[in-house]
Design a protein that fits this description.
By secondary structure, the chain is α+β, with helices and mostly antiparallel strands. The chain has one domain. Helix content is 32%, strand content 24%. It has a three-stranded antiparallel sheet, with no helix packed on it. The longest helix is centred in the middle third of the chain and has 15 residues. The radius of gyration is 25 Å and the shape is elongated.
């Protein structure tokens, strides 16, 4: 981990596109301003971890669901006739 000291209104660059500026310091709290391209997500760590958990949960497939899809794919599909 790289540890840097910065004062208010000083900036750190990450690559060519991400700027982190110390906006304010009050007691033990530091306010940071982050300027990054829109395609780069910027989140507090606890929010980022919650998003990852939800994405992992949403991507889980139950074995029963896979078997149901296999059965559907094996059965020949008959075209539906319009009602008379």
């Amino acid at each position: 981990m790289l540890v840097l000291s910065r004062q208010r209104d000083e900036t750190i660059m990450i690559g060519d596109e991400i700027e982190i500026t110390v906006v304010d310091i009050r007691g033990d709290k530091v306010r940071l301003g982050i300027n990054a391209p829109r395609h780069i997500g910027v989140h507090r760590k606890e929010v980022y971890e919650a998003i990852r958990r939800e994405n992992a949960k949403a991507s889980e497939i139950e074995v029963g669901e896979i078997e149901a899809v296999r059965r559907d794919l094996r059965q020949p599909h008959k075209p539906k006739r319009p009602p008379r």
